[in-house]
Amino acid sequence: MTKMQIKEIRMHLVQGLHTMTDQAITDVLAVENCPDDADFASQLAQHGLNVSMQCRRIKRIREMENALRRLVQSDYGMCEECGEEIGVARLKANPLARLCVSCQSAAEEGLTRCA
Ligand SMILES: [Zn+2]
After folding, report:
1. Statement to judge: residues 5 and 53 lie in one domain
2. Residues 86, 47: one domain?
3. Ligand 1 centre from 55 Cα, in Å?
4. Ligand 1 centre and the CA of 4: distance in Å?
């Protein structure tokens, strides 16, 4: 992978991270800045509904941070199963990918061996 490609993927990740964090903060502010009690209660209920969504979002933020961390290390872009390169096209489409295409489909089929 070239430096240019790494930079491109990092931009992509940082941008995604910003969007995710902004959304999370907006949700919290909506609850905190509520002027009256009735509204607060409904906001809080709404917030409760958002919790599972938040959990998924936080998980995704963690994955993104993880990918960013791996990006500065040498093992980014390497399949965690077989150690082969994942491929730039796949990483651009999904910067969080940790497996190459064949290992990913094997994993999805519940197989552990690398095709
Ligand atoms: Zn693999």
Report:
1. yes
2. no
3. 28
4. 24
